[in-house]
Design a protein that fits this description.
49% helix; 20 helices; 9 strands; single chain; globular; alpha/beta; uronate isomerase, domain 2, chain A; TIM Barrel; 4-stranded parallel β-sheet
Length: 463
């Protein structure tokens, strides 16, 4: 039976662990891309197309792979036409996790147990839109009804966090906390860097930022502010990771060249990024934050479509550069003075998993799982990708300490990914029991499942 109560649960132990332990645990979604303004304003979705397809480049890529015209993806076709185009695509993606997720979202949120295809499109459109028109399907209700306790959004240092403050001032069944994402302050070679630095100055006590010391002070001020707003995580997109040591005087000259609009040599870019990252690592440690490093995305591979649609529209790939040596140097630079924060290492390239697990083991101290191998991310949040991540974590570290799943999503309907992960986790542990690699000990195994699904995250992040 498709998507029965026991789908993915291949043996009795997997079934018992999921239904008795995993299923009931609340959700801590400690990394996502939901807009706090949308959460605060709590509007209803116009229709299922907005809720399902709006901004979802996972789905857009598959529609393009099936030959759907761009007008029906990101163009000006009607909502219903775009919805039908997705319904026509779904039968062709059997075996892709989005086939399962699409049906799971329909079933869990809307109570619709129909196959998604062109024939069923009209009735699915009608039934889902009727539900979306009710108060129970406003954005906050969707979150609360998904058993979510904490959401960590992704926020730029210059953000005022006004909507986080408004949400904090209201009674709610869940918390919405910011995450510090300073990528724009590190992308010194990008167009608009100088303008961004002045925006950063405007939200601090500075009239302008004219040197590197003032930049670091401004970032420190924003870290302090984010901390008062409940922030306990930072995040970095390290698509290309290099380590270049540089003295303070030299990095100051590099910074001044950049804000003057001068072109930088590649080595100067990496030197500035190295110095700034090490400073931030130490600042995160001082605040007791967890640092997330997202490594090896290969952004904007299709230059023509980047020009037409902009970034984050489904044209990113996976990088395969070497990261062991530069990442070791970065971690070691903070660790030399005992200022390395709790760190979660994600790589979009699963070939990096063994080296990340080995490297993080070189810096473990002070607390359980101080360094973590991040959950299967983006191209890896499939059943196979999740199992690979669990296997690598268990093989090289202590799986008991894993902080579990996150959505990394812009969709309010993506919480079923936690269910999907929990089923994969229980399947994985159940198979260990079946192979007699784990004991038939309900207390031991149940505790492991509950920790990974919820308790580890609740304890690790110090919310």
């Amino acid at each position: 039976m498709f998507l029965s109560d026991n789908f993915l649960l291949s043996n009795q132990w997997a079934k018992d662990l999921y239904h008795d332990y995993a299923k009931k645990m609340p959700i801590i979604d400690y990394h996502c891309h939901l807009d706090p303004k949308e959460i605060y304003e709590n509007q209803q979705f116009t229709d299922i197309t907005e809720a399902w397809l709006g901004g979802d480049h996972y789905k857009w890529r598959l529609m393009r792979a099936c030959g759907v015209d761009e007008q029906l993806i990101t163009g000006d076709s009607s909502s219903y036409e775009k919805f039908v185009a997705w319904c026509q695509t779904v039968p062709k993606i059997l075996g892709n996790p989005l086939y399962t997720w699409t049906h799971l979202e329909l079933k869990r949120f809307f109570g619709i147990d129909l196959l998604v295809n062109e024939e069923n499109a009209p009735i699915i459109w009608q039934m889902s839109n009727e539900k979306l028109a009710t108060d129970n399907f406003k954005r906050r209700e969707i979150i609360a009804n998904s058993q979510v306790e904490v959401i960590c959004t992704t926020d730029d240092p210059i953000d005022t966090l006004i909507f986080h403050q408004k949400l904090a001032d209201e009674e709610s069944r869940f918390r919405v906390l910011p995450t510090f994402r300073p990528d724009k302050s590190l992308n010194i070679s990008q167009t608009g860097f100088s303008s961004y630095i002045q925006q950063l100055a405007a939200v601090t006590d500075k009239n302008e930022i004219t040197n590197y010391s003032e930049l670091l002070d401004a970032l420190d001020q924003r870290i302090d502010y984010f901390h008062t707003m409940g922030c306990r995580l930072s995040d970095h997109a390290l698509d290309i990771l290099k380590y270049v040591e540089v003295d303070t005087q030299s990095v100051d000259l590099i910074f001044k060249k950049a804000i003057a609009g001068e072109t930088l040599a590649e080595k100067e870019v990496y030197a500035y990024q190295t110095a700034t990252l090490v400073h931030l690592f130490k600042a995160y440690h001082a605040h007791g934050w967890t640092m997330q490093l997202h490594i090896h995305a290969y952004r904007n591979c299709n230059s023509k479509m980047l020009e037409e649609l902009g970034p984050d529209t489904g044209y990113d790939g996976i990088n395969d550069l070497s990261i062991t040596i530069p990442l070791q140097h970065l971690l070691d630079a903070a660790n030399k003075t005992d200022q390395l924060p709790q760190t979660i290492l994600y790589s979009l390239n699963p070939n990096d998993y063994p080296l990340l697990v080995a490297l993080m083991g070189c810096f473990q101290k002070d607390s359980p799982g101080k360094l973590q191998l991040g959950s299967g991310w983006w191209y890896n949040d499939t059943r196979a990708g999740m199992r690979n991540q669990l296997t690598q974590f268990a093989d090289g570290s202590a799986l008991h300490n894993f902080v579990g799943m996150l959505t990394d999503s812009r969709s309010f309907l993506s919480y079923t990914r936690h269910e999907y992960f929990r089923r994969v986790l229980c399947e994985f542990i159940g198979e260990l029991v079946e192979r007699e690699e784990a004991p038939e000990d309900r207390e031991l195994l149940g505790s492991l499942i509950e920790n990974i699904c919820y308790r580890n995250a609740a304890n690790y992040f110090h919310f």
